[in-house]
Amino acid sequence: MLGKYFDYNATTPLREEVASILIDNLLLFGNPSSSHSFGQFAKEKIEEGRSQVAALINADSSEILFTSGGTESINTALKGFFFACDKRPFHIITSKIEHSATLELCHYLASLGAEITYLPVDANGFIAIEDLVNAIHEHTALISIMYANNEIGTIQPIKEMAKAIKQINRDIFFHVDAVQALGKIPINVHDLEVDALSLAAHKIYGPKGTGALYLKKGNQQLVQLLHGGGQENGLRGGTENLLGIIGFGQACALATEELLQHKHNTVALRNYFLEKIKHAIEQIEMNSPEIEGDVLQNTFNISFTNIRAEALSVLLSQVYGIAVSIGSACSAEKAELSHVLLALGLSEERIKSSIRISFGLYTDYKDIDYLVDSLKEAVTRLRSILPVG
After folding, report:
1. Are the CB atoms for 23 and 375 separated by under 8 Å?
2. Measured between alpha carbons, how far is 220 from 224 in angstroms, rounded to an integer?
3. Active site residues
4. 10 Å Cβ neighbour count for 349?
5. Is the pLDDT higher at 285 or at 335?
6. Which residues are CB-neighbours of 322 under 8 A, at least 6 positions away?
């Protein structure tokens, strides 16, 4: 069945190696906060996982705070800094193509008096550094930008952004949503010079319900969201998700070892897919940038002229057993046009005919062949029986 799964950006399958580690530790029950041997053994496992997560992004293990996922990591950084900062007025800069976790949180902070600037993007989804710099003013305290977009795959120039921000004001807190980038592109937090970075396990073949927030040393003065027993250096109360952390750590360890090879394989599959689909199906438009170095190589957002994406997605699922997406998994149930594609300036008709295809570790060339053949049949069928005027 994995050969028919093309929605890796929504979530990834649990790796067998990770599942094996989880099974081996399934009966581990000690509370990591307890001083006896059962608790201390559990604590050792958590610290091992923390070190493995840190190694993937070249951080120190003390800079990793475990959370329940990417959404909590984003909330911890942005909301935590907003309430900890005594600077008022409080200005936040983000972009129009951020994940809903960031956008909804910014709407909430605006209701509390924050000024929000939403940066535009160009036709390929890139934020102009000039626009970012021009948006900064004396009350700017927080900037949050997505590293790689989940719908179109655009990779932002985070290092250059950080440099520009710090040259203007080193006190501005720069947070990066790296949930979709983790495990797909090299991330070196010291090279990037960001203040905070959000991560999630289920995007890199780890278990759901576990995430992490990188907090640069010296920038850990946040108001905690969850008050309790003082876990995670006093920043997140509550007994840690032991199994989730063990699984996340193992997934990161595997990603560290395989990152370059995985990227090489993904580029080859990308090129193969693009060549095949462009020859197989007429009247398609690529919404993802076709730039090898500046886009996630596993991500394709494609419009099929005279097709409704919902109908195509259902047909692919029910007849061919293929899973694709018609937008972000977090907003798929809402009857709204993709805010990301709207920000690119695409027409309503083009957006309504767009699907996202994303593949990963378990995708091979035979899977690509099956996908393209199925797409060709499905598109031909829909265009013949459900013509759109």
Report:
1. no
2. 10
3. 330
4. 14
5. 285
6. 4, 6, 316, 370, 371, 374
